[in-house]
Amino acid sequence: MGPAAGGGNVRGATRLVAVATVLAVAGMSAACGAGTADPPVTAQSGGATHDGHGQGAPPPPSPTPPRAGERFVTLKMPQPYAPVAPNGGTDEYRCFLVDPGLSTQAYLTGSQFLPQNADIVHHAIFFQIPPAGAAEARELDEGTPGEGWQCFGDSGVNGDAWVAHWAPGADEVLLDEGLGYEMPAGSQLVMQVHYNLLATGGKSGSTDQSSIRLRLADATTAMTPLATMQAPAPVELPCTAQESGPLCDRDAAIKDVTRRFGQDVGSSAADLLQWCSQGKPAPGSTQHCDHPMEGAATIYATAGHMHLLGRAITIELNPGTTGAQTLLDVPQYNFDDQAIRPLATPVKIKKGDVLRVTCTHDAGLRKMLPQLQSLPPRYVVWGDGTADEMCLGLLIGTPS
To answer: Where is the Copper type II ascorbate-dependent monooxygenase C-terminal domain (predicted)?
Structure first.
């Protein structure tokens, strides 16, 4: 979920994926097609080895000491969980309800995710659940056998708001003083973990009990509330000329995504095309989507997310105009380095400005990557699995 114009939260009728929603994001609606100041956000990189694909995790670095008015709160999954991928897939998304114990208003000013079993943790997202949604979250948790609940898409709770995430290459995120995500008294957190089980063919091979270290500040100091804004683009990557097989057919590939993850995720390819190119697929390695802004915002940091076939990702402001700016440029995408990129100077975006997200993927990597070599070739569309793909621009800022 993302913040709508005016700072509220909306829930899209269709959830795109765990890390992207219908474009009710910071007042953005989609109309798409084929002397430096101190940075306001510090993202410490964890190196170039992807800990979520069987490489083993180095010890996390020590966090920056708490600043005045801050405290650390560490939250852990209630019990170890043994993931099992459903429907013959190799990925599971599981949500766990954790309670930060807030009796008064606070602000989340930083976080550090601590994957306990980094061999199977692909990424994690944390959603703030407002007090009014806490009962719904508890009902989901208590009504599902075992720990947590399955949650392809978002958390499944109305009114959720993305406040933290982890992907390979990211360790502690420290926001500049005076910036933070609102955490009302009585609010909860949902820890959504994407488990990658390619190594075991989707079967349960081990358990995980990950945790997160929150940096919380009380509300006695004036704070500027932040929001994570999400801007996706389509993925329409055909098989290479050397590949063949039933899943090289686009319709068959979409049916396979739907079988593994359900209709909400399976409809993502069609939804993105409708928003981004009038519903017409244009197969190719590079795709983009333009997002006209319906409201103003100030952007402090950016990030990009793709999966293993990703080659490059950019986020541009007002492309093709005299005032064009590049907010994110990753010409050699590395899945193992998805840390947040702070902007040297915050960028103000006006109503009517256009944000363009562009991604390049390479189907030829399928034969080069051990994780994918045993899988049948496929026409790749947007999907939740490690072997599927995404094209997502993330912007951390303050909607006006």
So the answer is: 289-392
